[in-house]
Amino acid sequence: MFSNSLPTTIFLTGIPGLEPAYMWISIPFCSMYMVALAGNLILILVISTDHSLHTPMYLFLCLLSFTDLALSSTTVPKMLAILWLHAGRITFGGCLAQMFFVHSIFALESSVLLAMAFDRYVAICNPLRYTTILNHGVIVRIGLAGLIRSVAIVSPFIFLLQRLPYCGHHIMAHTYCEHMGIARLACADITVNIVYGLTVALLAMGLDSVLIAVSYSIILHAVFRLPSRDARRKALGTCGSHIGVILVFYIPAFFSFLTHRFGHHHVPRHVHIFLANLYVLVPPVLNPIIYGAKTKDIQRRILRLMSPGQDFV
């Protein structure tokens, strides 16, 4: 019905009002992307090549690194092209594809963090059956379930955007395509898009964060019932990295989501865009650093990879 009013191209303007500083802004963005690529590729290489690390915790960490690479690589190259070359033009189909991958990968990463919380719950609350409950078949099924859920809840975005008339509007103030940014170009009521977007956020981030909180409340209850202080410290130490990763992922995401939905008329547009850039850049950068700094097995394997002739104990 509205197919003739769909724009052939979308023009991403980048960060409005900060055009003179694009080159300076691109330096930390590019540096963070390089760190994210290197850190996550090293983690994937270390875990995939060392059979002693093919345990549930490290397999989930490997999956987390894959999602981090996908999330940053879906957005940052176009972001840098805009900042360096002012190359903001993208086809409408390409914009929808980027939007689909950004939101589905983000939902998948939330699923992976929930799976990692379940992993810590089983490891601490039921350690004798840890490898039985979380065998490789179960891990594969958890990964597939997260992928199917992400694709299923994000796919309707494409239909909801294609049904809207755009009346020639094709200029979007952003560095990458996302659902509400595209929807606001429409010259029609977008209440359905807003409601469904909120529903997806609640089904993905909201539900996952609640389940993670429940998991850790049970974990903490079990930990503080342990008889010795050393046992409690060791148990909490195995959760430290994961808690750090959870905070790095959910805090900027929730902050960006809440300001975008409820502070749209009070928070400057360039702040919205900066926050949106941070939540696709900060987790991929910090996750490998957090696990590399707090996990001795990872540290030893990385050192061995960098200096193959030496033995690190």
From TrEMBL:
PROSITE patterns to which the protein is assigned, alphabetical: G_PROTEIN_RECEP_F1_1, G_PROTEIN_RECEP_F1_2
Location relative to the cell: Cell membrane; Membrane
Location of the G-protein coupled receptors family 1 profile domain: 39-291
GO MF term (any one): G protein-coupled receptor activity
Chief location of this protein within or outside the cell: membrane
Segments passing through the bilayer: 21-46, 58-84, 96-118, 138-161, 210-227, 239-259, 271-291
One cellular-component annotation, GO: plasma membrane
Topology of the protein relative to the lipid bilayer: Multi-pass membrane protein
Annotated keywords: Cell membrane, G-protein coupled receptor, Membrane, Olfaction, Receptor, Sensory transduction, Transducer, Transmembrane, Transmembrane helix
Signal peptide coordinates: none
PANTHER family found in the cross-reference section: OLFACTORY RECEPTOR 52D1, OLFACTORY RECEPTOR 56B1-RELATED
Family the entry assigns: Belongs to the G-protein coupled receptor 1 family.
Function as written in the Swiss-Prot or TrEMBL entry: Odorant receptor.
The name this protein goes by in its record: Olfactory receptor
Natural source organism: Vombatus ursinus (Common wombat)
